[in-house]
Amino acid sequence: MVNWFWKKRRQPRRTLAVRSRGDVGDATRVDFAELAPELNRFLGQAAYLQLGYFETLTRGIRATPELARKEALSRAAGAALDKHRGIVRVITERGEDPTELMLPFRENLDAFRRKTIGARQEETLLAVYLTAGMLDDFYLALASSYGETGERVAEILREDGAGGEIVSIIQQTIESDEEWRSLLSMWGRRLVGDTLLVCRGALRPERLAQDEQRIEPVYTELMGAHARRMDAMGLAS
């Protein structure tokens, strides 16, 4: 799950390491100090990602005729917007302009979102749930490189949200017609490559070529958490 997408409940405090949501055991730890981007780049990209999820979910609300689903998506969209506003608040308190920090990532992240918008709304919702989960985990790991500011962003990313609403929609869809299971399983697997490219693009390119092996354990953790999210919904990963 995506932390801003889980049902609201108290969870153990998470350490700054890549792991699946709710997993309180040991996780692979990676020193990102030399790979992590400069702080403003980290903040701008993290803020724009959450804004993008809000936009995608808001469009879903407009396209949904069912009132119950509209309400569920509104809660998920609100959680994404809260995270965006939280990161923007961190940026402004540092005396920076949030728009200027986010603007360099608009083109690439909008292209990423277009790739993860499915032909059917259920595919798009699954994409939001799964990609936000992977990217929230990744940014939690990166946050450990930025001291107090990173900890503030980590706290924002750990906030509970309404992901359970999206999971319920996906599960109800599968129960209504078993053919959805194979379709959504295939779609979920297709999301991994593009999401990992976003992660890779967030790192310092000049150091990445030298430290390729350092990032591999993180990719392994992200894909493992992705598989667990898929399995929890009854989808083959």
Automatic annotation (TrEMBL):
Gene3D superfamilies attached to this UniProt entry: 1.20.1260.10
Residues covered by the Ferritin-like domain: 42-196
Protein name: Ferritin-like domain-containing protein
